[in-house]
Design goal:
Layout (H helix, E strand, L loop, with lengths): L1 E6 L3 E6 L2 E11 L4 E8 L2 E9 L8 E6 L5 E5 L4 E5 L2 E7 L7 E7 L2 E11 L2 E8 L6 H11 L8
Antiparallel strand pairs: 1-2, 1-12, 2-3, 3-4, 4-5, 5-6, 7-8, 8-9, 9-10, 10-11, 11-12
Amino acid sequence: MYRAIFHPSNQSEYYFKGELLFTVKRKRLWLGTRNRCSIYKGDEIICEFYSSEFIFLYWKLKILYQKFDKIINLKNNGSYYNLIVDNKSISIKFASNPFKKVIGKMFIDGKCVVEIEKSEKKSDTYFDFNFYDSNGLEYYILVLFSMYSIGITDSA
């Protein structure tokens, strides 16, 4: 099972069967409206990206650096971004009701491949990824989720 754990310290961790895959650390910039995020595998930075937080007006997402096994690109489709890997398009759609158990679904080339469930324990927020089948792009699906979920657990 794939799982993401969000801590109140602007850090999230992504796991597969209890083994840490990567950690995302967020640094707030410019009065807290922009973020620079680093994805770490162990102590090594494997990706850095920039995200703005004015989602209701505009949203900007940009990859600044990457060192993945496969090259990734972001495709802006107006109000959302798709992650392109191996000529496949990964997208995400969040539920309109954030209080539902299933808070979103992710797609590869328009086909739903995973449901995302949210739960909370103490001060941490957990996201469980229930994949329908193995597709070889699970890691990159988690990367896209990490880019979309900046500030998802902020209370203020």
